[in-house]
Every structure is written in C-alpha cells, then in structure tokens.
Design brief:
The chain has about 350 residues and is an all-alpha fold. About 65% of the residues lie in helices and about 0% in strands. It is built from 14 helices and 2 strands; from the N terminus they run H-H-H-H-H-E-E-H-H-H-H-H-H-H-H-H. Strand 1 and strand 2 form a beta hairpin. It is globular and about 60 Å long.
C-alpha cells in the first residue's frame, strides 16, 4: 500500500525513493508486525479468555506436566495472522500476484485451523474430522500452486531444482501440482506437530522465515540468481517483505508465548505458518531446501510416522511419546532445555539451507 501511494511521489520528494527498495520495506514490515503485536496482544488474549472454555485448552495426549498449563488460552495464532496481514499489506507492492498468493494461502489455512480450534474448545475435543481438515488443506494448497503457475512465465515453473548441484534440474511437468501440494500440506502439518511446548514452534518458524526472506530476495534478482546459479523467479523478491512480516509477527507472539506462556498458538497459527513456508518454497523454487531449513519440523513429523508405524506393525513404540519433543520430556528434560536445544538445531539447519545457495 505504501509502495503504491508513495513511490509515484519520489520525484518530488527524494526521501520517498527508500520505498522502492525491498530491503527497506522488509525492515519496515518487521518493525510494524512487532509493534502491532505489542499493541493488540493483551486485547487478543483477553478476548480469547472470555470466549473459551479454558479447561479444554490442554490436549489429553500430552505428558502429565502439561496439566499445570490448564487455563491458558489458545488460538493465539490470530495475533500472528492479524499482524502478518497488516504488515504485509502495508509494505508490499500489492500489484505483485505472488504476495497475494502467499498471503491468501496463509490466511485460508489459518481459517481451517481456527475452525478446528473453535470446535475443540466449544463442541468437542476432537475438532474437525481429520479427513475434512486434510481436504481443506489440499484444496487451499492446490489453489496456491495453480495461482503461482498462472502468474509465472512458465519457463521454470514446474522444474525441481536439486540443492548442492549446479545443473541438476528435474522437469516435473504435470506431476508438479501434486508434488507442490504435498510440500505445502506437509509443511503445514509438520509445524502443527512441532507446536507442543512454550515457544517451541515459533522460534524455528522465525528462523525459517528469515532464511526464505533471503532466498526470495536473491531469486527475485536476475543478477544475483545468475551469479549464484539459482532459478530466477520474476517478482519473487517482493516475498521478502512477507517473510519480514512473519519474522516480526513471530517475535511479537513469542513475547506472549515465552515460558510460562500467556497464550498458545493453536492450529490457527501453526497450520497457517506451515502452509506459508510451504508456498514460499514452491514459488521461490526451493522446495527441497525447505526440508533442510525446516528440518526440525521434518524430524518431528517423522517421529510421529515412525511411532505409529512401529506400533501398528509390532505393537512396540520407538519413542516414549511422539512427537519427538514429548519423548525428551519423558526422559526428564526440562521444557526450557528442549526448546532452547531445538532452537539451536533449527538455527544450524537454517544456516545449512542457506549454504546451498553457494555450495553447488
């Protein structure tokens, strides 16, 4: 919005040339989302407390130590969605179709999470039926991928770039749609599984968003993309502003989610942010790099798959409890220890993912 309003005035007021630069607007998006979180956070938490049955905000399938958290409101992802949306709309070039695609996929998936959370709190603890929730995610992801394909020039849109290799490009053709949908839905559910401890999911999301902000900026610049031998995606640089807004919104939410949490994210936030990272990876043509940058989310998801598969086939559990963070709780690790160590892993993986930009 500011880009559209102020850039035409740059010839009369030279200072407004700043709004031409993605880096400047990304910084503005970070600060806007952060400050807005501080402003609306207390009001959102009060509203959630008034409209929730606080006895139902802690799931039954968690370690006994979580019972002390009963009474903490959930669905704090609303705070993230509000600040992320306002900041992105304020600082982005709204004529860019990729911005709308990423933002709409994030918000629509957030609404699926919101409905699931609301039903858990007001009707039953199960929320939306699993198949219906998955169907909603698939439809939304399909919309996002098709919107990207329609907005792209088509030259590399359905190609899959393999990290660490200069010229290894796999043309997926018609198989790109189901593959990209799998990436988005998988990322959404992986972040959702990671959201189990105070501050656990929001930190890695923030690190991943920062990494993809850099990737979006580089792939959107033909000169940088050519130098680094990256797929060049025209106009994708504007997505760095969405990433900045997500970093700011994550920092703001963490202020209230830091142990002991004043609010939980809920599916409203975790499903939305996971799908946001997924569609970012698809548009910037770094789908496989997402598995590295978001490796912590992959580990959490794989731990659940391994646990369920092992129990069904052998009747034995590999972990004391899944997802993985609950296993370490059962081993006696303090919650803060798990969160900080998982954050360290997430930072290392984000840096490793960024290293693929040069190690080719």
């Amino acid at each position: 919005m500011l880009y559209t309003l102020l850039v035409p005035l740059a010839e009369q007021f030279k200072i407004l040339n700043l709004f031409r630069y993605i880096t400047f607007r990304t910084g503005g998006a970070i600060l806007t989302a952060l400050i807005l979180s501080f402003l609306i956070g207390p009001a959102v938490i009060r509203w959630l407390k008034r409209h929730q049955n606080l006895d139902n905000t802690v799931r039954e399938d968690v370690p006994e130590t979580h019972l002390k958290k009963k009474g903490t409101p959930t669905m704090g992802g609303l705070m993230i969605l509000i600040t992320l949306s306002v900041s992105t709309l304020l600082w982005s070039d709204l004529s860019n179709p990729h911005v709308w695609t990423v933002l709409l996929v994030t918000l629509m998936t957030g609404m699926v999470g919101f409905l699931d959370d609301w039903l858990k709190l007001t009707r039953n603890r199960k929320g939306l039926p699993g198949r219906l929730k998955l169907l909603g995610q698939v439809v939304i992801a399909s919309f996002g991928v098709i919107a990207f394909l329609l907005a792209s020039d088509g030259t590399q849109a359905t190609d899959l770039a393999v990290p660490f290799f200069k010229n290894l490009i796999i043309p997926l053709g018609p198989f790109f749609l189901p593959f990209a949908v799998f990436v988005i839905v998988g990322a959404s559910n992986a972040v959702n599984l990671t959201d189990g401890l105070d501050g656990l999911a929001i930190g890695p999301v923030m690190f991943a968003a920062g990494a993809f902000g850099i990737i979006a900026y580089l792939t959107g610049r033909a000169d940088f993309a050519a130098y680094l031998q990256l797929p060049h995606v025209a106009a994708s640089g504007e997505l760095a502003i969405y990433c900045g807004a997500l970093v700011g919104a994550s920092l703001g939410f963490l202020w209230f989610n830091a142990p002991p949490a004043m609010v939980f994210m809920g599916d409203t936030g975790s499903l939305a942010m996971g799908s946001g990272l997924g569609i970012l990876a698809v548009i910037t043509k770094h789908e496989l790099v997402l598995a590295i940058i978001g490796g912590l989310f992959v580990l959490e998801a794989v731990s659940v798959i391994v646990q369920v598969t092992s129990f069904k086939l052998t009747g034995k559990r590999v972990f004391r409890m899944a997802p993985l963070h609950h296993h370490f709780e059962k081993l006696g690790w303090a919650e803060s220890t798990i969160v900080i160590r998982f954050w360290i892993i997430a930072i290392v993986l984000a840096l490793l993912g960024l290293s693929t930009l040069k190690l080719r």
